[in-house]
User: What shape does this take?
Amino acid sequence: MARFSLQKGREFANRNPARPIAPSNAGKSTVSACLGRGVRILVIAPQPFFAERGTPIAVRRLVETLCADGHEVDLLTYPFGTDVEVEGLSIHRARTFPGVDAVGIGFSLRKLLLDLMLLPKFFQMAKSGRYHTVHAVEEAVYLALLLRRRHQAKVVYDMDSSLVDQLADSNTVFRLFRPLLTRIEQWAIRHADVVAPMCQDLADYAVDIRETEDAVVLHDVPVETASVASALPLTMNGANEGRPLALYVGNLEAYQGIDLLVEAAGLLPRESPVSIQVVGGPMNEVERFRSLIAERDLRDRIQFLGPRPLEQLNERLARADILLSPRSKGGNTPLKVYSYMESGRAILATRLSTHTQVLDDSTALLVDPSPEAYARGLARLAGDEELRNTLGESAQRRVRRSYSPRSFARKVRDIYGSHRPRAAHAGSAWGLSDVWHGADRRASGERRRGGDRRSGPRAGRERRVGERRSLIHA
Assistant: This one.
């Protein structure tokens, strides 16, 4: 099909609002070229939906934002989860694999089997011309790209993490195949029409691969919940004796650094004025940690409460004095950090990129990822109420300025709103739109002066990365 002009594309959209402009090798069209009015979008989320954990929470906010903007959204997801009612949203569930009725966080054989079960349902739904855009979360991007000829829609890669890193961390075998897996991941990044990473480190990674400055950071935002104060105990075991309460909320996966937290608790002096609570599951890990703290005689210092309903989150955060994120590895920013910041409570976090993309020394007490450093940081915050108040207020101002629901909606509209087309990428089937207009203009100017970013010194690249970060926080 011949390439459309923007005006012709709009006229075509008015006559056929749900049908996308088909791509051609001769030219590039943008995701937003036909979005003058609501269109039909397919979101593929390879997770239980809805479930009270990070990615499903982010997916829910995404579909709510798209539907609020007048788009019709079909959500293809796993066969289990809680249905939610959103005007304009239709949930489609793949069939389950025999014997699989639940799936944990991260890579597993069960998750792989459920991903395969998405394929026939997607093939059925991806009728030619039905969708304007396929918004693929995490590994679903491979389904979207491989079936592109059938669905004839643009592909948005919602990049919540590096799949290569996930696989390499899960099993030694995958580390042996890391070069091959990296090439596969980079192929998806190059060929998606829009890449929407959830943090700046992933954005920098995508920018390097695509050799453009067009990634839009689709950051998380604080979780909005109802207050249920009457259901919550204020103190540890009913008697906190006036000691500050330090709280961790989240899953208990190895990368979260819960072992580090337990060791840090053991290093605190007995007279240290702090109690620690850990909220989250699964229960088999909760029981393991309960046995561990019993062996180390730390039950009066740290308590594992197990999973709690999401609607209790904000009330629990409000009742704490210190909020903990002891992550020991990882690059993506945890969802809980944004809720931590919104609460106005002091945050104690490890000085790793997973945190420093959002936090700095003015908004959190950042320490090295070791039990000794974490214990010192915890003792310092427990004994300094003024410091706790200063850090908490600063973090709250930051999140309301830069990571609010309004900011998230604006980023979604950057993807599905008005873009300018970028130059074609060699070897890419379709193009995408430039989101960082200012960064693109700077990069173009540097190329005119002979400073192409692909051949320039790393220092220049780091300067541009810093400029993009300033755009995010604007």
Remarks:
- Residues 229-401 form a domain with the Rossmann fold fold (CATH 3.40.50.2000).
